Amino acid sequence: xxxxxxxxxxxxxxxxxxxxxxxxxxxxxxxxxxxxxxxxxxxxxxxxxxxxxxxxxxxxxxxxxxxxxxxxxxxxxxxxxxxxxxxxxxxxxxxxxxxxxxxxxxxxxxxxxxxxxxxxxxxxxxxxxxxxxxxxxxxxxxxxxxxxxxxxxxxxxxxxxxxxxxxxxxxxxxxxxxxxxxxxxxxxxxxxxxxxxxxxxxxxxxxxxxxxxxxxxxxxxxxxxxxxxxxxxxxxxxxxxxxxxxxxxxxxxxxxxxxxxxxxxxxxxxxxxxxxxxxxxxxxxxxxxxxxxxxxxxxxxxxxxxxxxxxxxxxxxxxxxxxxxxxxxxxxxxxxxxxxxxxxxxxxxxxxxxxxxxxxxxxxxxxxxxxxxxxxxxxxxxxxxxxxxxxxxxxxxxxxxxxxxxxxxxxxxxxxxxxxxxxxxxxxxxxxxxxxxxxxxxxxxxxxxxxxxxxxxxxxxxxxxxxxxxxxxxxxxxxxxxxxxxxxxxxxxxxxxxxxxxxxxxxx
Length: 508
Description:
The protein is mostly helical. The protein is built from 21 helices and no strands.
């Protein structure tokens, strides 16, 4: 299990490790605005687009084998990114990092499903898996800030190498191989291309809505992705050997688990996009200070998953624990709404409450989905869970970010002082960051007025985005209805394990 946490920690850290490195990269490589955007986004786009392919591929060739291939690719891409001498090279290296990440994430979760046959042990392992993933996202900015204060920007990529090297040495010794019994079947390349062409436009469109608001192109991108997704689903139902088996969705547990997991990430991403900006732009914390302050709520998160697992072991229906965890997260949203403007401790407490609820949901849902999935399809099941997370995160950022931005523009338009130059007026209306930058270039009294008005408008937008609590409360009500009594434990025996037994025999 310790070996499996190595790649998971690094992959989750790579989502956020570039937060502080961008100014240094911009100084050295001089990327255009479009290139800088792709440096940031390429990793997440490729990772989300390839998760389904890599999960299904691991089921066929072996999950440990795919893990080792991914580790080698991730290490090589890290070196290429660290020593990139042009923006184009760095973008390509980030794409290769996404390929490696897409192999590592479903492989680790699928191996957890295969290695831990006892249901109680598997629940603990999933709790550890969830805690490590959450910790990596939180630690990424802190580690990035520390490295950049002592070394050059390439160090944020080279930090991956020791962990990947250790994984390549230890995994063949300590982690058994598992693969589907039907290892001779052909891999469906067309389904792989369709899945990539379905996921990528949807995620891209949602991210563009979050960044630029609603325009003509993002909805078209989403519609195109959904149309290709319909073709992908149709093919999976008709081909003899589908990449994603429809059998995964025949039970009562797996399909709802994917949806509940996506709602959880919707809530987490939608809250985080505002809380980080609030710390930096409203309270005036530097990016590193904000990242360090955000470590405080993670202390409470560390105990959430084990506590929830213990409740389920004591006989509490997992569906009710999930519903209660959603209610906790909704309370965190409302606490932030009531306390916005009251100082740093209120927003940190709200962040901790939301994170405790959401991490609890994700841990129990992941365990439920793995229980429901046949072991021979554990790679595809893990990939579907993680793809749902990517959709949920992108949707939360797009929807709640757009709501907040709309209210910000409305409020700042009414509060903008007279005599503001036209160019500054347009910048102030775009985002809080642009408003503060424009205020720095104005006469002191006018600049202070603009900055104060922009911060108030952002806080108003943050209040409006608390509408996300409605989705979380709805999930708190619906999750127990959808999931009640579908997650009964078998403690490693019964029909579930009988079905999985052929695939859970290790292959050395």
